[in-house]
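Structure first, sequence second, as always.
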């Protein structure tokens, strides 16, 4: 092997070693967190926390999901606290997270089967125990007159089940939840 071939081989080997690809959490789902002009880059812990949730800094700060890969149009969903747990007022806030990409595709297929459109798909997690949680979701842009339904995804049966909406008004949908998990906000004709 000549000297040029040895050097070239070493360069290629080094390039392969030091250019390890970064895999997304789910095949086909690019994960990119970037800072908006309004981001507070003076607090690195906030940026790190946003990245850990695959969110933009503004999404993290507002406890919201404002965009999802694989959805062209997304209505923001946020939760600001004061969840009513088993009929009792609380100061609990349910974290609003981005769901797995497979759940987004499933929600889109389910909405299409209803003749509807997905507004957003979010994942709700909490460590607080409850029987029924009455949760006020902030959904900016709705008037309250839309035919909105909220469905929860069952991992065990791979089905979507409709949740009880106790109130719809401008910018708000109030839902009775009987557990945490993935929620799809769907509008039908």
């Amino acid at each position: 092997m000549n000297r040029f071939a040895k050097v070239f081989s070493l360069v290629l080997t080094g390039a392969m070693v030091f250019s390890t690809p970064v895999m997304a959490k789910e095949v086909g789902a690019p994960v990119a967190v970037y800072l908006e002009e309004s981001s507070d880059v003076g607090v690195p812990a906030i940026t790190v926390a946003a990245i850990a949730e695959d969110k933009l800094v503004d999404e993290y700060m507002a406890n919201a999901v404002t965009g999802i890969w694989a959805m062209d149009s997304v209505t923001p969903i946020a939760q600001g606290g004061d969840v009513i747990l088993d009929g009792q007022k609380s100061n609990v806030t349910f974290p609003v997270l981005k769901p797995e990409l497979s759940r987004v595709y499933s929600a889109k297929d389910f909405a299409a089967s209803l003749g509807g459109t997905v507004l957003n798909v979010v994942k709700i997690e909490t460590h607080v125990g409850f029987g029924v949680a009455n949760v006020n979701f902030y959904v900016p842009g709705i008037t309250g007159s839309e035919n909105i339904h909220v469905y929860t995804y069952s991992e065990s049966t791979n089905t979507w089940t409709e949740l009880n909406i106790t109130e719809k008004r401008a910018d708000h949908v109030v839902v009775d939840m009987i557990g945490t998990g993935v929620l799809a906000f769907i509008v039908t004709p």
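Margin note: The chain has four helices and eleven strands.
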